[in-house]
Amino acid sequence: MKLRIIVLLSFFMSNLSAQTQFTTVPQYPSQTDSIVITFDVTNATHSNKIAGYNGDVYAHTGVSLRYSDGSILIWQNVIGAWGNNSTQPRLVRIADNTYRITINNPRKFYNVNDPSVDIVQLCFVLRSSDGTKQTEDVFVPLYEPGITVVINSPDVRALYGDPLRSPYFTENYNPVLIRAKSAAIGAKAAMMKLLINSETVSVVYTDTLSYLFTPDKSSETNYIEIIAEDTTGISDTAEFVIVAVPQQVDEPLPGNFEHGINYNGNEVYLVLFAPYKKFVYLIGDFNDWKVNSEYLLKRYEAREDSVLYWIKLDNLQPGTEYAFQYLIDGKIRIPDPYSEKILDPWNDSYITSSVYPDLISYPYGKTENIVSVLSATRKEYVWKTTDFEKPPKENLVIYEMLVRDFVETHDFAALIDTIGYFKKLGVNAIELMPVMEFEGNSSWGYNPMMHFAVDKYYGPADKLKEFVDSCHSSGIAVILDIVLNHAYGLNPLVRMYWDTTQGRPASNNPWFNQTSPNQVFSWGYDFNHESNNTKYYVDRVTSYWLKEFKADGFRFDFSKGFTNTPGDGGSYDPSRIKILKRMADKLWETDPEAYVILEHFAPDTEEKELASYGMMLWGNLNYNYSEAAMGWNEEGKSDFGRISYKSRGFTTPALVGYMESHDEERLMYKNLTWGNSNGDYDVKELSTALDRIKLAAVFFITVPGPKMLWQFEELGYDYSIDYNGRLGEKPIRWDYYTLPEHSDRQKLFEFFSELINLKKTYGAFSTDNFVLNVSDPIKEITLVDSSMNVKIIGNFGVASGSAYPQFPNNGYWYEYFTGDSIKVDNGTTFIKLKAGEYKLYTSVRISTRKDSSSENGNNEIKENFYVYQNHPNPFSSVTLLEWELPQKSSVVIKLFNPLGEEISDLVNEIQEAGNHKYYLKANKFNLSSGIYFVNYNLNGFIKTQKIVLIK
């Protein structure tokens, strides 16, 4: 049947002036011809227009196939993958904005081997070699040999089997011009005939037919047939439907329903905010995706710019999911903007059942584009943890992660199994990069499509809730990275009001600016945050994730863009501050304790004002920490003093500082690639590079205020951010954590864990009385607190150095990692440091954290406190330590007196695996009563043991 081909052609010919234009040789190509296609991209309508580009242009190309049941699927048999220039055809540039490609025999070129399947059109997106510029989708129709009816008017597109799924609409029974042509391949047209509702109304004996049809008010639906016949009597028929839109019913909403999908017992109310639109039909599984006057939405118009279209559904089967769309003005098919679940015709087929079980199928052959899903009986998740208390903002240690690159299965189910890892590391918050439905499957998530739906590539929504629930039961907060600066082209709010001529949001779009006021940093389409409609939408988004998923807060992507002030966003902007304060106030109405974290990077004066209001700001110190870790200290490059919130004028610890984030290069990669060296000391050597990460971490995590780690930073992840392309998938190296050959990386993990535990346990690391002196290679941090003072010293050079650091008090100071002690007089003492060496001194002796057993069998101490009464002097021996060693282990033990002075090395040897007891040979010493400290270093894990001797 040929009618699908002809109506496709009419659609594309009628839109040539507003899109990429093309011509073909031959004029009416078939699916076995050699076809030369010439594209003129001058009027390409994609936002990242390719017009004016002079580099190589590649074709992302596939076909639309018609199957034996009449259904048509677009973008099938795609050649290669988007952005892969080695597999996708390159076009020939023949003039400015003009390109040419030759397709020899489309069936062979696109590998269409099933003879029962026909190619009805070729699909193209023309893109620049770097993928930054492109056209809209361009479709080139194909024809079958013989006579073919081509409809030029009206603009119909019967892609979906039954004409009632894609009729042409006329309002007020206005006349419709019907024009058609008979295209001939190896034939000659003889006659054309037009039938309306089975009655012949026009016959012509040429290859062109024209007729002005005025619909009869007695019938809303009119069936059109056009027959073309050649001189041999062979004919072709095209069919379509003209629907006269019935009179609009104006009626207020019967309840206090919000925009979107409203569940009301066994009823569902769908409410669409659509000012300036003429009519809206509901199409979906409940009416076989056919236009039906019973599913014309009612209208409630408060004023011209506040129009709601709504419908009640009450005959739905409990427990059944239904897919649906809104058909607006007979042309635009969109999902509900507030959908909590959608189906994607291009990407769902690549989501496995193990990631998303029982995912219903897309209604191929019945509609196109994204569709919504609703369920007649909404199942609520039962939360197990209902009393979670968020960690204090000033004490947050956040772990930022991209689910895709953290677990091999890229799903929440696997992520739940890693919570033990986070507990052992000690972080108290996890920040998920965007998990809301974005365009495509594999993505960072900053190309948002739907703000209320969980991206199915990561699994069902309930699994995300279970992850949050499990984190809460482990004392870990969950922060969602959310993108409300912009949306991309599949977002229904973008598509509802679109200027096809300019290739951008229309001037009457209620939510989006036509162009971003910030052209320096601009992605997708820019939300107009001064619009009341955008404010309503933003507040609905934040409230939804706080309530429905019990998220503990948000990291707002590119909050600097929440403004209509022209420029690059780098200046103090009162209007932006007002927008952000209003947004925060509104979400704090839902959860007064919710974290509000801004990726802002605006002037300190603006960030200080936002911090004082209760928000937190990202603090990027990647460059400075990287320079310090690599050992490059010239010209203050390694000065990371701005990790202190005080350096920015903040009066509260509201700076979320980080050495790495998803957007920054990895410190270990820089160490191994560009690390400095001096003689035998080489930062590029693996063990040294890892030690330099420890050095940086000591001067990072201990600084008061919230901190953030990027995934696997704690294991020295050393793949560049540009590996496989900046946004490309990265290797997931859990072997760094599990395999013995990576013991140095595992020690780094333990080191981070120790530092995080210090930060969360001791008030000194949250004090507001602290000073950083970090401009020179030998850097210092001083922390003063009523409970304990801390002095941190480190040599970021690549040669030995020395210093006379100022200590906040005299007396004994205890080095945390080794258990050594020093005595400070007159506020200072001489300290010599090897290259890369660090010291963390406390004014009160504290123990390193007991190591918990882990997957690879770390050492587990059986006893950790000993009291001996009435001991002889001298006495023979007392039990010092007892443990089990899973493997050959290095042990270093030292004894300190009550003043913290080292008495002697006791053990320094390699021990075989098995049960061990170590004894204090007390007869070697004249020990009096008191508290003694035994410091042991076992495979790099350090702990202090207390022994009380009583006569």
List keywords for this structure.
single chain, 951 residues, alpha+beta, Immunoglobulin-like, eight-stranded parallel β-barrel, six-stranded antiparallel β-sheet, 55 strands, 15% helix, elongated, disordered N terminus, GH, signal
Task: Give structural notes.
Residues 1-18 form the signal peptide. With 951 residues, the protein is of the alpha+beta class. Among the domains are: 3-141, Immunoglobulin-like, CATH 2.60.40; 146-244, Immunoglobulins (Immunoglobulin-like, Sandwich); 260-375, Immunoglobulins (Immunoglobulin-like, Sandwich); 624-651 and 666-704 and 740-846, Immunoglobulin-like; 860-950, Immunoglobulin-like. 15% of the residues lie in helices and 32% in strands. The chain has 14 helices and 55 strands. The strands form 14 sheets. An eight-stranded parallel beta barrel has the order 26-27-28-33-34-35-36-39. Strands 40-41-42-47-44-45 form a six-stranded antiparallel beta sheet, with no helix packed on it. Strands 10-16-15-12-13 form a five-stranded mixed beta sheet. Helix 8 links the parallel strand 33 (553-556) and strand 34. Helix 7 (532-548) runs parallel beside helix 8, helix 11 crosses helix 12 and helix 12 runs parallel beside helix 14 (743-761). The longest helix is centred in the last third of the chain and has 19 residues, at 743-761.
